[in-house]
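Aim 2 progress. For Matrin-type domain-containing protein, the working sequence is reproduced below.
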Amino acid sequence: MSSTLLEVTRASHEEVERLERLVVKDLQTEPPTNKDRLHQSHRVRNMIVQIIDTTHKLVDIYEDKDGARKDEIAALGGQTATGTNVFSAFYDRLKEIREYHRRHPAARFIIDTGDEYEQLLKEEPQIEFSGEEGSGRYLDLHELFNEYINSKFGEPIEYTAYLDVFSQPQKIPRKAKSTRQYQEYLQKLLEYLVYFFERTEPLQDIDRIFSKVTSEFEEEWTMGKVEGWENNGRENGSAPENHTVIDLDYYSTAEELMVVGPEKLKEALGALGLKTGGTIQQRAERLFLTKNTPLKKLDRKHFTKGSRKPEQNGVVAAPQVGDDVIEMALLEAKIRKLCDLLDETIVRTRENVEKKQALTYEEMEAEREEDDVQAESESDEDDQQIYNPLKLPMGWDGKPIPYWLYKLHGLGQEFKCEICGNHSYWGRRAYERHFKEWRHQHGMRCLGIPNTKNFNEITSIEEAKLLWERIQERQGVNKWRPDLEEEYEDQEGNIYNKKTFTDLKRQGLI
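Predicted structure tokens for this construct:
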């Protein structure tokens, strides 16, 4: 019975309609926590995938490439090889139905599949996050950070500074990008960002986003306006000095370089304006000279007659832009797009790292336990929204505090601290307490100023610096007083400081 093609078509349409209703019902519920939001998004994503798969099956059925659907419809109409006999087809079909129910008595009862579909709304998909990612709230870029600071294109910086620069690959000098190591770094960074984005934003269509990025990139590349790659990889009409189509960092000798072949060597030499003739070994040795020696320092005999050395005309022959260069530029464009979409997560990650740097191990453990308890309590709360038009702070019972208490403690008064990054503190008590908290301590550490009682009530960076200079002057630190420390000698060999020597000389005593 249920194996007929028309029955499969009907069941598929019913399944699509049920899933669509479940998607609408699930999205009508506002998740109370971030964890619930992730579970909801992944549930909806899974149901959408089921709808797409079922729809593809329906399309195949309606296309009817093998003619099975057409034959079944014809059989229902009584059309046979001998002619059309509606009554004969009807009674044959009735006999088949009776025989089916005689062999399967349980099929007479109606089975409600609604409960099975309703279970999908209670499903909690398993989403893998590392300990540093905090259930999708923060990024974990420590592995990529170590690769960045230990590479030729990177620089030795702290992790917090790396969180500011990893989203701006266009600012890396173009000369440092001509290595396979940089391309592999971009691929790993993009792979992680895509993986993180798919786990935290499953309802976003990453393929459609990248398709738009690619189309915009191709247009900008043709016009030479890709950020960091203007004029198709040339700077001021000249090519980077050590740019070749072959990455020499992966070869330690000229003999190893010979494996790329004579044509590849000839192309690389011609791009740099060097002689392209000779045996494959001579070409490899000539190209290998450019690994550690700038073009302007090479002997003139290595250059072709038609081209002059870089110091003579200031320009070398511009190399042709290869597919690797275009691929790296496209990878950078995709990374910048994902970083724009994950901007709030990046800011949240930076704040979390700065906070951890100002905490001890015991404080970090206590905070982690507090977050776990808070997450459990949030998940157990009812979905009822509390009426709070004045946006008053919550009390210990989870309800807004009385308005008179709000006014008594001055919680409507805002205090801003420039040292804390212009963070706002509401109420005098929170403002006074923040001078001992991690945010203010980190800000003072960045300024190179000890966070002592002398700097309480100071929120301006300029005032803090000025006070620190005065304290250093008062303590005699880093101050040279010439009137007391500069020494002078008279004709008899007596030693005086500057002030005494000037007074005696003015009086004519020496």
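The CA atoms of residues 170 and 325 lie 13 Å apart. This observation will guide construct design in the next reporting period.
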